[in-house]
Amino acid sequence: MLKPGDVAPDFNVRDHTGRVHRLADYHGKNVVLWFYPKADTPG
């Protein structure tokens, strides 16, 4: 579990278009991750 002030580990994530983003590609920039379910998922 990360604590406030910890450095986030590098990771890869795929966006809604299928493009892969690496956290390291945004070094020195503010990053916001926004997770939401697809419109066609139940719940």
UniProtKB/TrEMBL annotation:
<dbReference type="InterPro" id="IPR000866">
    <property type="entry name" value="AhpC/TSA"/>
</dbReference>
<dbReference type="Pfam" id="PF00578">
    <property type="entry name" value="AhpC-TSA"/>
</dbReference>
<dbReference type="GO" id="GO:0016209">
    <property type="term" value="F:antioxidant activity"/>
</dbReference>
<dbReference type="GO" id="GO:0016491">
    <property type="term" value="F:oxidoreductase activity"/>
</dbReference>
<protein>
    <submittedName>
        <fullName>Redoxin domain-containing protein</fullName>
    </submittedName>
</protein>
<dbReference type="InterPro" id="IPR036249">
    <property type="entry name" value="Thioredoxin-like_sf"/>
</dbReference>
<feature type="domain" description="Alkyl hydroperoxide reductase subunit C/ Thiol specific antioxidant">
    <location>
        <begin position="4"/>
        <end position="43"/>
    </location>
</feature>
